[in-house]
Each structure stands twice: as structure tokens, then as C-alpha cells.
Amino acid sequence: MHTVTIKSIDKEQIQRAVAAYATRLRQQHPEIERIIWFGSWVTGLPSPGSDVDLCLILTASDKAPRDRISAYLPFGFPVGVDLVVYTRAEFERLQKISPGWYAAIISGVEI
């Protein structure tokens, strides 16, 4: 016999978790200038399994973009987190080199 488990989505729990995570990030990482929450939790209807999409914008970094992410990932978060981390200069360039991706990010909310 096969069963299907459907998990309900508690939007308030996710909002509290994101706010607490953003607070911790700002306390532990003064290089973070902006945190933007975008994606289905903000602009659409999240479904079971939807992750939280966050963009961190740093003053500067000497690490490659892919090497930065691990320093900022949360532990024990109630859903998956898709994290992108840009320096201020990289984020400004993103508007020209990937306008659709830039628009998706800025369609979110700054937290």
C-alpha cells in the first residue's frame, strides 16, 4: 500500500523564520548591505516543497560568488533556501548582463 503525505504550508512560520534568519545574518555579517526575499513565497502562491529565495548583497568580497554561499546558509530552516550572494558592484552589473534575473530579484521585498 502506498501513501501520500501532503504537508501544509504555514506562511506565518516561514515569515518568522526568514525574519529571524535575516536578523542573525545582519548581526553576524556586517558586510551584508541588503537582503531581498523574492520568488513564490513573496510574489506567488508557494506550494508544498517551495523553497525560500533570498539574495544577499555584500559591500565587497574576495571570494568567488559560488564560494560565498556556504558562509551564509541557515541551519534548521523549516524549508529549503535558495541563496544567491552578490557584491554591490556585481548586483549593479546584473541589471545589464541578466535583466530578467535582476527583475525577478528586485520584484521581491527587502528585509
Short account of what is shown:
With 111 residues, this protein is of the alpha+beta class.
What does this structure look like?
With 111 residues, the chain is an alpha+beta fold. The chain is built from five helices and four strands. The protein has helices at 11-28, 40-43, 65-68, 88-97, 99-106, and strands spanning 32-38, 52-58, 81-87, 109-110. It has a four-stranded mixed β-sheet, sandwiched between helices. Helix 3 (65-68) links the parallel strand 2 and strand 3. Helix 4 (88-97) crosses helix 5. The longest helix has 18 residues, at 11-28. The mean pLDDT is 91.
List keywords for this structure.
111 residues; alpha+beta; four-stranded mixed β-sheet; 5 helices; 4 strands; 40% helix; globular
Largest sheet report: 4 strands, mixed
Strand order of the largest sheet: 3-2-1-4
SSE string, helices as H and strands as E: HEHEHEHHE
Q: Which regions contain 5 or more consecutive residues with pLDDT less than 50? A: none
Strand content range: 15-25%
Quickly give the structural class.
alpha+beta
Q: What fraction, in percent, of the residue positions are helical?
A: 25-40%
Distance between the termini: 45 Å
Number of H- or I-type helical stretches: 5
Radius of gyration, in Å, reads 15 Å
- Form type: globular
Number of strands: 4
Q: Write down the overall mean pLDDT.
A: 91
